[in-house]
Amino acid sequence: MTAQPAAKPRLNSAFKQLMSLHWAMSACYLVLFITGPFMAQLPRELFIRNPLYAFHKSVGVLTMAFLTWRILTLLRVWWKKYTKRLPKFTKEWYKNFALHATLYVFMWLVPVAGFLLSNSIRNKNVPFFGIVVPDMFPKNPAMVEVGRSLHFWLGYTFLAFVILHILAEKKVVRANWRRLTNFVRTKFSKSQKVG
Predict the structure, then answer these.
(1) Domain residues of the chain, as ranges?
(2) Which of 46, 49, 78, 118 is deepest in the core (most CB within 10 A)?
(3) For the whole prediction, is pTM greater than 0.90?
(4) How far is residue 35's CA from residue 140's CA, in Å, rounded to a whole number?
(5) Looking at residue 166, what DSSP letter applies?
(6) How many C-beta atoms lie closer than 10 Å to residue 190's C-beta?
């Protein structure tokens, strides 16, 4: 009797989709956290300010689309996983669940506060790389400061939770850092041999 080869995970598995979305969203949030404070400090008359705001808003819309896809994929993963067997509800599980749930709430709240800010200002629609996105909120100059404060404080609170997430996953971060540096080192040594 011959041994059956181990089944290979499907390339389009839901878990791989989740990890791909995780890293795509991480890159988007890095861009948002860098461009946000930078563009807010630019003088209004500087020519790059408006295109930078449009880019920031477009990336924000993209992250909301990714977030929707991620939540749907996560629900599918949970359904498959937890209909077979419930998790062990340990203190560690609750702590991990609370941190991730909080991150998801902020992933939704921060861009919604950005929409509130942009939609409240007259003639400041939210673009998605040139396509105007329908308003979520009515134009209301009285809400501009509320939107600005919410977007600012929610954004920095979200950043604090992202840092907590990175610290909680330090083993994963170290493993990915090693993988990245090994990849770069290998590519660099190959390019030196060719040159």
Answers:
(1) 14-189
(2) 118
(3) no
(4) 25
(5) H
(6) 10
- DSSP string for 98-145: HHHHHHHHHHHHHHHHHHHHHHHSTT-PEEETTEEEPPSS---GGGHH
Q: How much is the CA Rg of the chain, to the nearest whole Å? A: 21
User: pLDDT of 117-126, one tens digit each?
Assistant: 999 987 678 8
Per-residue pLDDT of 42-52, as tens digits, reads 998 899 998 99
User: 14-189 belongs to which CATH class?
Assistant: mainly alpha
- Using CA atoms, how far residue 38 sits from 14, 33, 48, 109, 168, in Å, is 36, 9, 11, 21, 28
Residues in the chain: 195
Angle subtended at Cα 8 by Cα 13 and Cα 67, rounded to the nearest 5 degrees? 15
CA separation for the pair 107, 101 (Å, rounded): 10
What the block records as the tokens of 146 is: 């509320």
Residue 53 neighbours by CB distance under 10 Å? 19
Taking the C-alpha atoms of residue 162 and residue 155, their distance in angstroms, rounded to an integer, is 10
Centre a 10 Å sphere on the Cβ of residue 158 and count the other Cβ atoms it contains. 20
Beta bridge partners of 127: 132
